[in-house]
Design a protein that fits this description.
It is a single chain. The chain has one domain: outer membrane lipoprotein receptor (LolB), chain A (Clam), CATH 2.50.20. Helix content is 21%, strand content 44%. By secondary structure, it is α+β, with helices and mostly antiparallel strands. Strands 6-5-4-3-2-1-13-12-11-10-9-8-7 form a 13-stranded antiparallel β-sheet, covered by helices on one side.
Length: 241
């Protein structure tokens, strides 16, 4: 009986130690990542960004404007065949307008779609101050991303949404995300790849190329903390009132 108790105690201590080491390893990777992209103080100064980009869809270049106000709102506009569509997400509601699909006015997002999208309001990403935001991070070991050795971190947000983040082991840049999202009641994975990292005048490092499966997107410019119109995150019908 004594031997059994000693064995149980030993296994318990080993397990506790493994969990502690795992958590410590995840935090060490996160700290090196944050330092590599400019440091936490530089990122906390970022309150808004406006990006001008182009996306290549089957050989056609589509101009895109993406504006985000930290934790408050996001708007993406895109033009194709002389028509402009857009999507707006705020901390309270969201709308889509797609004239290419025959829409003549904005439509409100479903509660599920809004919940799945609101993490995009966080300019700082899922790793800076993740504990304060109610998220948990688990280190899943190393993995290969198209020949690049990466650290693999699983982020579980307070909403329950899960995202796997791949950190380049050589420079600690975040080069890939695989997020589990729900659409029409079904769960699916969305993979996003980032590259061509450049340091902005504000001291933060930003990916100038992105691809989430809808075609590669090239970032032409990034403006940080510029004044935004008061009605930018309202559907046009509301902004006219």
């Amino acid at each position: 009986m004594k031997n059994l108790k000693r064995w149980v105690l030993t296994v318990s201590l080993l397990f506790a130690g493994a969990v502690f080491t795992n958590a410590q390893t995840a935090d060490e990777i996160i700290q090196k990542h944050i330092k590599a992209i400019g440091g936490v103080e530089s990122w906390k100064k970022v309150k808004s960004v406006k990006m001008l980009a182009t996306s290549n869809a089957n050989g056609t270049e589509i101009p895109i404007t993406l504006t985000i106000l930290q934790d408050k709102g996001m708007k993406v506009e895109y033009t194709f065949n002389g028509m402009t569509g857009w999507a707006i997400i705020t901390d309270k509601a969201g709308w889509n307008f797609s004239p290419f699909a025959g829409q003549t006015k904005a439509e409100a997002m479903s509660e599920e779609a809004l919940k799945q999208s609101q993490d995009q309001l966080n300019i700082h990403g899922g790793l800076i101050d993740y504990k304060e935001k109610g998220s948990t991070v688990t280190y899943l070991g190393k993995d290969d991303v198209e020949g690049t050795e990466c650290y693999k971190l699983k982020v579980t947000y307070k909403t329950g949404k899960e995202e796997t983040i791949y950190i380049d082991a050589s420079n600690y840049y975040h080069i890939r995300s695989i997020a589990k999202v729900k659409a029409d009641g079904k769960e699916q994975e969305v993979t996003s790849n980032m590259g061509n990292f450049q340091k902005l005048p504000e001291g933060i490092v930003w990916p100038m190329s992105m691809d989430n499966g809808g075609g590669p997107m090239t970032i032409k410019s990034v403006e940080v903390n510029k004044p935004l119109p008061d009605d930018i995150f309202k559907p046009k019908e509301e902004s006219k009132k």
